[in-house]
Amino acid sequence: MRYVELNNGVKMPILGYGVFQINDQEECERCVLDAISVGYRSIDTAQAYGNEEAVGRAIKKSGVPREELFITTKVWISNAGYETAKKSIEESLEKLQLDYVDLVLIHLPFNDYYGTYRAMEDLYEAGKLKAIGVSNFYPDRLMDLIQFNKVVPAVNQVETHPFYQQKKAQEIMNKYGVQMESWGPFAEGKNNIFSNETLKSVGEKYNKSNAQVALRYLIQRDIVVIPKTVNKERMIENMDVFNFELTNEDMELIASLDQEESSFYSLHDTSMVGFFIGLGK
């Protein structure tokens, strides 16, 4: 496994396992146990996913020493604000059955996320959080948060995949020492990513799948990835991306797939903003 070093010195696996949309508790527990058993050491969950308890049970049952695992969760919009966020993070620790969380992110930049971040800063200073960061923050809001808080976010988790490569956003993150992390590295199957001819042509040279090429492309750009699957064989396949390297020509070819717009939603779209605000109330 390759690791990245965050801006506070904490080391984070560059490839982890995400549990978004694994809503069934038993299935989620089984999936996390499978992921850990095949070598994953980073697990990404969130308050909004409703499966922190299942993740916690799997961690406990895995038998893997706590210090070998890197666990991420996220504070949801409805838990924003200093006191509410602090309480919700304590509840997440209880659900996960952990004394500390390796990384806590603000899930979306809505409601009183300044209060949320200051609660995270205090819990970070108390040692209950090893690193803190954000998710779905566009460069403008990220820069604003950095300038008016004590702790620079260690991570910004944003939609990133071959069709939305976020190169300009990554430049800003690199400038401030914020690690870029990809959610949806497979674009949730959109644009026929698993049969895309460009990715296929690159993969054939290395006997690798489209999914493996997509992950490898992001990894070579120093982006943390957290692919999700409920299939153990796919988990193994997604881990098998450290024994080949894309050439500059390969990288340029994949770069040409960038459509420079989200495959899901824009937080500049007022109707989408209204939707998320509604979820926070």
CATH topology: TIM Barrel
For this structure, what is the CATH class?
Answer: Alpha Beta
What is the CATH superfamily classification?
Answer: NADP-dependent oxidoreductase domain
> How many extended strands?
10
As laid out across the biggest beta sheet, the strand order is 3-4-5-6-7-8-9-10
Strand content: 5-15%
* Integer-rounded radius of gyration: 18 Å
SS summary, helix count: 11
Measured distance between first and last alpha carbons: 40 Å
Shape: globular
Element string (H = helix, E = strand): EEEHEHEHEHEHEHEHHEHHH
Task: Provide the residue-averaged pLDDT.
Answer: 97
**Portion of residues within helices:** 40-55%
Secondary structure category: alpha/beta
Main beta sheet strand tally, sense and closure: 8 strands, parallel
Number of domains: 1
Q: Provide the CATH architecture.
A: Alpha-Beta Barrel
Short account of what is shown:
The protein has helices at residues 25-37, 52-62, 82-96, 113-125, 139-147, 167-176, 197-206, 210-220, 232-239, 248-255, 270-279; strands at residues 3-5, 11-13, 17-18, 42-44, 70-75, 103-106, 132-135, 155-159, 179-183, 224-225. The chain is an alpha/beta fold and 281 residues long.
